[in-house]
Amino acid sequence: MQARSALFDVYGDHLRARGSQAPVAALVRLLDPVGIAAPAVRTAISRMVLQGWLEPVQLDGGRGYRTTERANRRLDDAGNRIYGREVPAWDQHWHLAFVDPPPGRAARTRLRAGLRFLGYAELADHVWVSPFARAELASVLEREGATATIARADRFEPAPSSAWDLDALRDAYEGWLGSCVDLVEEHTAAHEDPDEAAFAARFHLVHEWRKFLFADPGLPDVLLPADWPGRTAAALFAAHAGRLKPGADRFVARCLGAAPPQA
C-alpha cells in the first residue's frame, strides 16, 4: 500500500469531519497500525504538498497539514460514491467528452486514470462517456493540459454500457463478497487494542472498497442486471463499515487528542 493512497484514505474517511487537518505526529500515529512507517508518511506529505493536495498549517499539536479545496472536492466526491450518498437520479441522457489530449505520454496516462476515476469510459479514441455530468471533469482536464468538447446525448443504440468491462466488474464484486469477512477478521485479530483493531480493519475495508471507484462508473440501476452483485457487495461493505466506525472514531480521537466527532 502506498503512503500517499493511505493518507487520502485517512483524510477522506476520518479527517473531513475534523476540519480536514492534523499534526504530522498524529498522521504518523494513525498510519502506524496499517503498516506505513513514519519516513514514508513524511515523504508522501511532501509530495502531496507539491501536487496541490495538502497545505501546511500550524496547529496546537505542532506543524500539520490540511487538505486544499481541490482535495476536498475529490474527497467529498469519493465519499459520496463510497457510501452511496447523494445518488443522482438518471435523466436518461449520456454525457460525452470529446477530448483533445495533452502531448506528453505521462500526462495522457494521468488523464486517462483521472477520467476513469470520475466514472468515464472511452467509447472510441478520445471519446469518453458517462451516465452523469461529472463536476470535476473541467479540473481534471485543466490539470493535465487537455481540453474537451462536451455533448449530451438522449439516445444510444445500443446503450454504451459495453464501454465498461461489466463482466470483469461482476467478477471483482463476487470476489469481494467472498473475501470481505476474512479481510475484516484478519486485521481485527492483528491488534490487541479493540479501538486500534477497529480502525485498522475499517481502514483496510475502505481502502479495498475504494478501488471500485476506478472500475465502477455507478451506472443507473435500470441499466444493470437484476442479479448484479454490486448491490449485495455495497450492503455488506456498509454493514461492516458502520459496525467498525465507533471504535475507529475513538482511536482517531486518541491520536489527535480530541473528542470523537458527533454522529
Please outline what is shown here:
The protein has 263 residues and is of the alpha+beta class. 52% of the residues lie in helices and 14% in strands.
Give the overall silhouette. Answer: globular
**Unreliably modeled segments:** none
Number of helices: 9
Largest sheet: 4 strands, antiparallel
What is the terminal separation in angstroms?
29 Å
Q: Which class best fits the helix and strand makeup?
A: alpha+beta
Annotate the secondary structure layout.
Elements: H1 3-15, E1 21-23, H2 24-31, H3 38-50, E2 54-59, E3 62-67, H4 69-82, E4 94-100, H5 105-118, E5 121-124, E6 127-130, H6 137-143, E7 147-153, H7 166-189, H8 194-210, H9 229-256
Antiparallel strand pairs: 1-3, 2-3, 4-6, 4-7, 5-6
Quickly list its features:
single chain; 263 residues; alpha+beta; Arc Repressor Mutant, subunit A; Alpha-Beta Plaits; 3-stranded antiparallel sheet; 9 helices; 7 strands; 14% strand
Describe the structure.
- The strands form two sheets. This protein has a four-stranded antiparallel sheet with strand order 5-6-4-7, with helices on one face. A three-stranded antiparallel sheet has the order 1-3-2.
- The two termini are 29 Å apart.
- Helices cover 52% and strands 14% of the residues.
- The protein is an alpha+beta fold.
- It has helices spanning 3-15, 24-31, 38-50, 69-82, 105-118, 137-143, 166-189, 194-210, 229-256, and strands at 21-23, 54-59, 62-67, 94-100, 121-124, 127-130, 147-153.
- A hairpin with a 2-residue loop joins strand 5 and strand 6.
- It is built from nine helices and seven strands; from the N terminus they run H-E-H-H-E-E-H-E-H-E-E-H-E-H-H-H.
- It folds into three domains: 3-74, Arc Repressor Mutant, subunit A (Orthogonal Bundle), CATH 1.10.10.10; 93-153, Alpha-Beta Plaits (2-Layer Sandwich), CATH 3.30.70; 164-256, no CATH class.
